[in-house]
Amino acid sequence: MNVKAQGLLNAARWVQDTYGDQALRDVLAQCSDPVRERVASGIAINWHPLAEFVEFLEAAESLLGRNDGRIAEQVGVAGARVNMKPAIVRISVYLLRPEFLMRRVMGLWSQFNDEGEMRVLSFTEQGAEADLVGIRNPQWLFCCSVTGWARELAMTMGMESVTCKHVQCRGRGDARCLWELRWS
Predict the structure, then answer these.
(1) CATH for 97-182, among 3.60.21, 3.30.980, 1.10.1660, 1.10.10?
(2) Neighbours of 54 (CB within 10 A)
(3) What is the pTM assigned to this prediction?
(4) What residue ranges do the domains of the chain occupy?
(5) pLDDT under 70 in the chain at which residues?
(6) Are the beta carbons of 168 and 97 closer than 8 angstroms?
(7) Alpha-carbon separation of residue 157 from 94, 130, 132, 160 (angstroms)
(8) pLDDT tens digits, residue range 107-148?
């Protein structure tokens, strides 16, 4: 699977902004040459292997976190903030039904990933369920970043007290990848 380089570049920027220049250097020191080169000179709209993004997340989790996926979730949040243009999305909520907007944004999956489809399975006033299908080799840390991204999407849409749980993960041996979002 290939993904747009902007995810990796956003992740590196988030590590630098949150933990500082030395932390980014330490994370990159644990990464392969291709990952270091991509961070140094990558172009956001170019495709690169998902494995490079996951490698960066693994190094960040190892050095900055507890290997529990929380760093990857925060990377997803940061990526969503950069890529969704929150002010435009908030204005759109007034013009569109929130369910339609969530389905539309999740429907943009193929613009950033060359495999799979993110689908909204249900949507109510209290929450939503979404799944990810069609990925040959799912990666748990990538799914963790999707968890943060989905939570931030709901918050950007004006939902309050948002929680997002990745309740099933193919990267962890489950039959599917499923997220439950709840809000008030």
Answers:
(1) 3.30.980
(2) 21
(3) 0.92
(4) 2-78, 97-182
(5) 85-96
(6) no
(7) 9, 16, 20, 9
(8) 889 999 999 999 999 999 999 999 999 999 999 999 999 999
3-state secondary structure of 85: coil
CA-CA-CA-CA torsion sign (70, 21, 4, 90): positive
Amino acid (1-letter code) at residue 173: G
* 98-135 exposure pattern, b = at least 16 Cβ within 10 A, e = fewer: beebbbebbeebeebbebbebebeebeeebbebebeeb
User: Tokens 């902007």 identify what position?
Assistant: 6
- 46: tokens are 């170019």
The residue behind tokens 């006033």 is: 125
Q: Would you call 184 exposed, middle or buried from its count of C-beta atoms within 10 A (0-12, 13-18, 19+)? A: exposed
Phi then psi for 31, rounded to 5 degrees?
-100, 160
Q: At what angle do helices 21-29 and 6-19 cross, to 10 degrees?
A: 130
Contact between 140 and 172 under an 8 Å Cβ cutoff? The reply is yes
